[in-house]
From TrEMBL:
It catalyses: UDP-alpha-D-glucose = UDP-alpha-D-galactose. It comes from Streptomyces prasinus. This is UDP-glucose 4-epimerase. It is an enzyme of class 5 (isomerase). GO terms for molecular function: UDP-glucose 4-epimerase activity. Residues 3-252 form the NAD-dependent epimerase/dehydratase domain.
Amino acid sequence: MTWLITGGAGYIGAHVVHAMAEAGERTVVYDDLSSGIPDRVPDGVPLVVGSVLDGERVARALTDHEVTGVVHLAAKKQVAESVERPLHYYRENVEGLRALLEAVTATGSASSFVFSSSAAVYGTPSTGAGLVTEDTPCLPMSPYGETKLAGEWMVRATGRATGLSTASLRYFNVAGAARPELADTGVSNLVPMVFEKLTANEPPRVFGDDYPTPDGTCVRDYIHVVDLAEAHVAAARALRAAPGRDLTLNIGRGEGVSVRGMIDRINALTGHDLAPTVAPRRPGDPANVVASADRAAAELGWKARHGVDDMITSAWAGWRRLHPGA
Ligand code: WQD
């Protein structure tokens, strides 16, 4: 049983590859290295450099490596960029997924398909301050979120048509690192954006403090990337064990933390004391997005094990590796 991990040289993808290896699963990485880093791929794991849009190259990788399962993480994931470049996101995330599914069904090699989806499919959840379940209506507010919802539809329809066993995993807010060299190198989410400000000895920014939440700042469900990776291993194994499954699962901790709460912890855990300034709201930010993770527990026996302090300290160790003066 070999798993093709698309995007396996990326921040989350590399954690999935390492978790699969630790679980004794054989993998091959398929990555176009547009943002992936080859050194993240462990020794002994083959790396095929290519785009999922290149159906022939994907099909060759599937057959050459006798792939029987796919974990698809290769995608563009920046919300703001998706608003500026919607067609780029639809091509990479939707057409790329279609081409990959085409290759998988044409070669008939894989029986299981795990798809990287996102909490962005919910947009502003109708659950208000409550927990978001997988049955909460999906009203994405960005082209990025739209591509992930369309991806779920495509994966589900292909599974129903071909018997492919599928799981769409809706990631909430991912942070942390298993080890410094696997840390996220991007600066497009709260934790690294605060690190960047603190490293420059500038106050972090809070994008709006007039939301209907306990302290007025947005509340999110932060999930350690190690827990997220382990959810992929659990999902892959569940699909292999029961062909024809069709799972859609929230991958979160089920606990909300506010922006101000995260900034306070980041200051404390990194030895800083820079009070944030309040900036205008960021368009499209929902006030509260916190997962109910009950279905993942019931279907996979998976539950997050790490808290935000682990996420912050491990992310900070990765940040300092790339910013020695921090
Ligand atoms: C979190 C909160 C900001 C920086 C997005 C995607 C989602 C997923 C995670 C891929 C928001 C606030 C941030 C700062 C701040 N990605 N903030 N000051 O927007 O919840 O989710 O990334 O799947 O799909 O939608 O994450 O980290 O950008 O922001 O106040 O300097 O922190 O306004 O409320 P977000 P984020």
